[in-house]
Amino acid sequence: MSNFGVASAFGNFYVYEDLLLHVTAENFFLEPQISHNEVLVIDRISREISLKAQQDQVPPHASGRLICGIVGIITLLSGPYLVIITKKSKVGEINGQNIWRVEETEILSYSRTLLHLTEEQIQYNKVYLSMVRSVLHTPHFYFSTSYDLTHTLQRLHNTSPDFLQMSLFERADQRFVWNNFLMRDLIAQPELHRYCLPVLHGFITIKTSVINRKTFTWCLISRRSWLHAGTRYFMRGVDSEGHVANFIETEQIVERDGCMTSFVQTRGSIPLFWSQMPNLKRKPSPRVINNENHIDSFSKHFNNQIFNYGRQVLINLVDQKGAEGHLEKCFSEMVQASKSPNIRYEAFDFHHECRKMRWDRLSILINKLAPVQDDLGYFLMLKDGTAVLVQDGVFRTNCIDCLDRTNVVQNMVGRRSLQQQLQKLGILNKDQKVEDHVNFEVVYRNVWADNADVCSIQYAGTSALKTDFTRTGKRSIAGLLSDGWNTLVRYYKNNFADGFRQDAIDLFLGNYNVEENEGVTKLCPLMKKKDMKLLAVRSVKVLKLLALPIVLLIALAMSFYCLLTPPVHTTETIMYVIFWAVITTVTLTVILYFGAEFVDCPKLQEFRPKLKVK
User: Fold this and answer.
1) Sign of the dihedral defined by the CA atoms of residues 335, 341, 343, 344, in that order
2) Which residues contact residue 137 at a Cβ distance below 8 angstroms, ignoring those fewer than 6 apart?
3) Is the peptide bond before 140 cis (omega within 30 degrees of 0)?
4) Rounded CA separation 511/20 (Å)
5) Is the dihedral of CA 226, 293, 289, 268 positive or negative?
6) What separation in angstroms does the CA of 221 have from each of 151, 159, 362, 452?
7) What pLDDT digit, counting tens, does each position of 515-535 carry?
8) HSE-CB for 372 with a 13 A CA cutoff
9) What does each C-alpha distance from 325 to 316, 318, 320, 336, 610 come to in angstroms?
10) Cα angle vertex 445, ends 442, 446, to 5°?
11) Alpha-carbon torsion angle 519, 523, 529, 533, nearest 10
12) How many CB atoms are located within 10 Å of the residue 87 CB?
């Protein structure tokens, strides 16, 4: 494709920029702002979706307002809901195409009343609605009506004319389209494709910067895959199709005078079947599941990765001792067993190598990877669309969560590539480094730290750890304190809130479909189980889930009371303190023993770990 041209990567197909929404008792009317020849009509009663001529379709009395686009349609107990974008903010431009972040959304019910539901169904429907809102409020969702955000520059370049004539939704990399399930009714009708907006979840920043009096645009895009998506502890490892948890493709783009260059990295959970179920312990032990076909899913994963990215350099940052060490050993053995010439494995015990705040030792890893990175290269496209350089593979980085340690290393690898990109575009001189330019260095560090925080919030529920190093280049006491606080918040969310978050993600992505008869002729998974026949079993469960925490709180309160009350008889006071301390210890031990029973587990799908483990 020698005459490809940069602009042709966008094709001739676009999605309508803004829509005028009219609502009546019978219909939703969505009218494109730039075209007055058609209107999308959604019948709220028959649920039929059709495209009609604009003339005389919208009743004069219909209320109208401007919206930014359609996320899709989701069916809950009361019926279908239309999910729309009501507010957006501009992130920036890539090759002159606007990139938007979703700021506010709204969920509109087809049904005008809930009278067809029972009281219990109404309550369940409220929970389902709160789940959808929970996902929509998770930062950040992005879209563009004219630029294909789901593909890297190199993938866009390696396309055919037929591909470029497809709608944005059809041609999108489906791994990163988070409203894929919600759009199924609209995408089924080709005439509606200009209303089908692919929505990306992850992180995007676009900065206009100046170095050596030369202006350029620097962009960082992290695309989260919705395949095998979920929360930190409930979604680990690989599935039977080769999709891994927390898979993120991160692309670094530099644009100057029409020339565009790109460097891509990936991250993802260790591609084995393993679990790490929350159980009230600070760090549950990860366990490799033994009764699964690891090699089959491992092969599927890397066959797909090699097809999409080329050669794979696996950077494994987990501990090489203890529970994490067992995972590292299994991963290494699987790579050796695969005997693939396109896979290279590099293990680096991050915590051991950087112990005692020796973060400068990360240079050992970066220097070791330097020749490999030079060999993999990066993508460079000239103004006329000619690709003069291509990236021949990627670094696939992981730690346990693919968050904190992973982001630190990806930031450093990205910096090394950025220096080469800027030098190639004539922005940096051959003897200059990125860090020599203080103003841009601050921007670079903070963008990567923001990327870490957002990706961490999406998966683990809190901002990332170790971002003080990313932002400043060194570890600090303040950073350690911040990490301590985030660790505590993670502990609470992972044990007592992530069951709901996992359910919300599964509902939004279509991993669970709500049936209209739930709560009437079919058991709703949100319903408390009423079929416990043995009173003793129920009593034990109540004892563990309610009585033990109450006893623990009373024992702690009495211990402090005895310590703080002025002693009348010292020996008697000591005996009281010992007694309540023993009660506290015993109760806490019992709670931790039955820790999994206190965890907020998902209700829509079964997430209990399988019994056979290595």
Assistant:
1) positive
2) none
3) yes
4) 32
5) negative
6) 10, 20, 24, 12
7) 989 989 999 999 854 443 334
8) 20
9) 11, 7, 4, 17, 21
10) 85
11) 120
12) 12
pLDDT digits (tens, 9 = 90+) for 368-407: 999 999 999 999 999 999 999 999 999 999 999 999 999 9
272-306: pLDDT as tens digits: 999 999 998 888 999 998 878 899 999 999 999 99
Per-residue DSSP letters for 500-542?
A: HHHHHHHHHHTSS---TTBTTTB--TTSPP-----HHHHHHHH
Cβ atoms of 354 and 362 closer than 8 Å: yes
Task: Give the C-alpha distances (Å, rounded to integers) separating 439 from 20, 261, 427.
Answer: 42, 22, 15
Position 6 pLDDT exceeds 70? no
From residue 446, alpha-carbon distances to 99, 209, 249, 441, 452 in Å are 20, 14, 19, 9, 10
CA distance 161 to 164: 5
The C-alpha atoms of residue 557 and residue 591 are separated, in whole angstroms, by: 17
Q: Give the span between the Cα atoms of 521 and 572, in whole angstroms.
A: 62
Q: How many helices (H) and strands (E) does the chain have?
A: 18, 20
The pTM is what?
0.90
With tokens 């050669």, the residue in question is 311
Size of the chain, expressed as the number of residues it contains:
614
Q: What is the 3-state secondary structure (H, E, C) of 127-165?
A: HHHHHHHHHHCCCCEEECCCCCCCCCHHHHHCCCHHHHC
